[in-house]
Amino acid sequence: MSRSTHPAGAQGAQERGDRLEVAASVLALLADRTRLALMERLGRGEADVTTLTEACGAARPSVSQHLAKLRLAGLVSTRKDGRRVVYALRHGHLRRLVDEAMNVADHQIGSLPPHD
Question: With a cut of 50, which residues of the chain have pLDDT below it?
Answer without folding.
Answer: 1-3
